[in-house]
Amino acid sequence: MLLHLIWLIPAAIFTFLVYREPRSLFNAYLLTFTLIMMGIVLAGLTIVSLERFIGYTPAMISFYILLLAIPISIFASTAYLIFNGRQMLQLEGLRLANLLSLLYGLAIVGLGLMHFLAPRSFLTTLISLADLLLFYGTFLYLSYIIYAFFLNIFPVKKEPQTIIILGAGLFGDKVPPLLAQRLDKGIAIYEQFNRKPVIIVSGGQGDDEWISEAEAMAGYLMEKGVPADSIFLENKSRTTLENLIFSKELMLAQGLEQDRVVLVTNSFHALRAGIYMKQVGLKGRSIGSRTAFYFLPSAWIRETAGLIRIYWKWHAFIIGISTASLPFLLIPHIFFIVKSPRKRYNDGKNKMEVRLR
Q1: What rounded mean pLDDT belongs to the chain?
Q2: What's the chain's Rg over C-alpha atoms?
Q3: Tell me, what DSSP letter sits at residue 113?
Q4: Cα–Cα dist 65/126, whole Å
Q5: pTM of the prediction?
Q6: Per-residue b/e over 87-119, b at no fewer than 16 CB within 10 Å?
């Protein structure tokens, strides 16, 4: 009778772990697992209730409709990824980073076609392994999106002493819309706490940028009414990790506390930035600004790759275990391939004998 409450076990563990340290990727996996279990329980309870009120046959029809929703959602998601890839090319230009959602969608389509076109052979096992890897990558991708969305729901409550705003690419010396969203979010938090926090703008100068990102960001903030004495510039960093390392050094030089920090970036980037924040020893939280919806699929694929790279040893171990199982998966196909010619010969011989009789 209490089986339908089993999802409360991972839910309770998740709640405890988030309270203890929200900047942990294990929380993301646990949240997704909890939601899957909750969905299964809810689907089961729904079918049981329908059977009680409308009968067995309508309940089973409803069950199959629920099952049908799974391939439909996969098809719809794949179609959107391909559409989004085309949209990214039109709006953002031809770059590898803008092709990611298109390539992801085409990979799903290609793998699906291989199931129908590939003959029953060793290739079938390789396709099964590719299925496993694609499922694993998709699980990570969805887990990071769901958990980042969950964390970003909660507003900043505790007053920070320092707001760190991470840079992004410039158009020459101009602040692009993506970076402006981060800066506007930082200004909103600055105003929320009566202009008491100081703001660190963090970003070096790229090869195609006329000035450092920090300098352009500081100019934007001052145009929006933030006084110059509330702004500190960190203009050496070239990566997210360097953003945090050099910002921490600047905080130490200015005598700022390291446990009252709010890190501002875009919504898709906040989870990875928070992980780096924890690694360099800054306490507080990261929060994401709004991002154009069409930009998110490719951005989240990049972020998934970045998060996998942080803990690559764990993922390599899991993938290695999957790859190591390949010889065991091949055994049934070896028997099938060896046995098939003999079976066809025996079948033909039996048919001939029947005709002769």
Answers
A1: 85
A2: 27
A3: H
A4: 31
A5: 0.83
A6: bbeeeeeeeeebbbbbbbbeebeeeeeeeeeee
